[in-house]
Amino acid sequence: MNPHKTLLIPLLMAVLAVAFGYRSYDETRRRIAEDLSQAVRQTVMNERRITQQPDTLRAYAHLRQALDTSVTVSGSYPAFARALTIEALRERAVLTVSVLSADKAQTTAGDIPAGCLPSDTVLWLTPGADGLALSFRAYARCTPWFILTQSDQTPSVLLLAVALLCGAGLSLRKRSQRSHTADAPEDGDDGRLITLGNLSLSTRDDCFYDDHRERLHLTPMQYALMEMFYLNDAHRLTKPHICRALWPGKDNADETLYTLIRRLKPILEAHSNLRISSDRGRAYVLEVCE
What is the mean pLDDT of the chain? Predict the structure, then answer.
């Protein structure tokens, strides 16, 4: 596989990890805001005493007139805390109640405190309260880290872990390839270099190298047989000659030789343009594929 295309795999996984992580973070942020909003609505509808205290409203109205601005009260109401479905918000969220003129009720959103997420604003018009309106809004102190801990980052973490493992594997593979090719002999180096097809035998370090100067991994018996083929000028070996050289003293090594040839053939086909063919059943020939 093209090494540049291979590098795209961990890079793509890392990008997907970031994308999934941000999506989960953003969904959690919206879920927190929605939970605050539903808790505000539930509190306003169920806790009528908050909205039906004429004496208190009149007192706030006089204070508003004296200060010439809206009057806001913030606090942690037990009913509001109970209405929150996200338990971690109960220690972080506050409910604000603003007393203002009904004619200004549509411009009460106000600034969001730093580091807080707001709910929707719920307006309550109070009949018989001198044209006053109540504005309800909740805020929760939510740092990016808090939102991150409340979100499901499992897919993102898994993808990032796979990306790191793939990157580490590619790095080790590249380092291994460098170590295999670092000592590959050049023409003219001390020692003999015999080339057939796209495989070269280095008698200096007893290794075979392909045309990319990468070492071909062979078992000792596979290497011994390949060396015999290369050192023979015709690259032709009779069966008795191979058996005597590789298994001296063994009466009948034909089956062992057949197994060795059978396992060596797919290695040559996968990593070279060489093949081993049979010459009339009496010998084997190493030749370049046409």
Answer: 81
